[in-house]
Amino acid sequence: MDWLDAAGYGFARQVLQRGTAAVYLIAFLSAVAQFRPLLGEHGLLPVPAYLRRPAARKSPTIFRWHYSDRMLAALACAGALLAAALLAGLPQEGPDWAPMLAFLLLWGGYLSIVNVGQVFYGFGWESLLLEAGFLCAFLGSRHTAAPVTVIWLARWLVFRLEFGAGLIKIRGDSCWRDLTALYYHHETQPMPNPASWWFHHLPKPLHRLEVLGNHITQLVVPFFLFAPQPLASLAAAVIIVTQLWLVLSGNFAWLNTLTIILAFSAVDDGAAHAVLAAVPAQNGYTATPLWFAVLVLAVSALLVALSYWPARNLLARRQLMNASFNRWHLCNAYGAFGTITRSRYEIIVEGTLDEDDEARWEEYEFKGKPGDPRRLPRQFAPYHLRLDWLMWFLGLGARGDNWFLPLLHRLLNADRATLKLLRRDPFGGLPPARVRARVFRYRYSSWAELRSTGQWWVRQPAGTYVHPVSLADFEA
Fold first, then answer.
1. Where are the domains of the chain?
2. Looking at residue 92, what is its pLDDT?
């Protein structure tokens, strides 16, 4: 079945398989570090309680039969080890079934986590990682040529990701249409990074050119992913450069990293060799086993059929953003930042050891979200700080009573696992007498304000989110 072979995409397959495995490694390590205090047996949104709901019974997960924190840790550690093996290229040295089985195990294990992760795993890049991992399972080992249908399906995934994001912007906020979106975005994005302040202060004409370039990259360039070479490789290069620009300017977990990896599906060996001489321009492969070819064709047909729903969504007037149309998270709809917020509001959590009205309140500091105005934002992506991201949504007005009030309760108990999610506990492990949450309006400082005060942010009180509460209030 030589017609099934994409013999000129050996380098692309290496990037797709090893790159996706690297992201799975980060995702599983994130689960090891964060899942228990967020979703464990005594977490903010305990999985055992969630699994008792009727809606949860429809989602495929191995935790439906039993959940324990130890079982979660075992799954996440096993997933991390398997991802590390794929990153090193070990299963790819064997027959085609070896990398296929390894990636399907990664996909199934992470699917089990996502489907009980509730709001803490409700991000579009979770589905993107699942879909990418499933595709990588059918790219074969290094001894046989990558199947052309899977290479094209990976491009189709990039197309949906980019074109969907472009459409949601044009259909959404007027600031994307009048090219002013970046007047606000770097300041109000979920989690700024060390360079975001500098990007925000770029000249406004350059911001307008950036938005125009974004529209071209997302609404025009994706069509060239399906063009003959070298146009497809050039289109991929434009997408990769654009995504690197986003990596430089913000923390978006592994969204940009995985998009870059997937874009390599359009880069053939000739283009890769022209840039990196170490990449061979041609590779020799053994014949693809008949059983693997038949399986690949069957899976490809399934994914083409499932693509009906995201394709229809792209054409829909009310386009869905980051939506899954099946419980397996295959062939999803993507898109981000259809609406840009003009003002930034942060929920600042404070505690005190005092009982009286003259109490001295101290601020809890989170790892990624803005807090202390003098603290330069840090770089965390592609690692995903789930609690910090939800704190951003809370500042936008999203409801969070089901997890935020339990968070305050854990702080009153000085719960060690919860405190590890934070950058700084002002009480050194002692339980506070009371905690509260206040709302602040944040904006970036100007050049002059930074020089005179050393503050990257300027903030002003904007109200109270939760009035002071004690353990007695939770027990009442």
1. 2-315, 347-475
2. 97
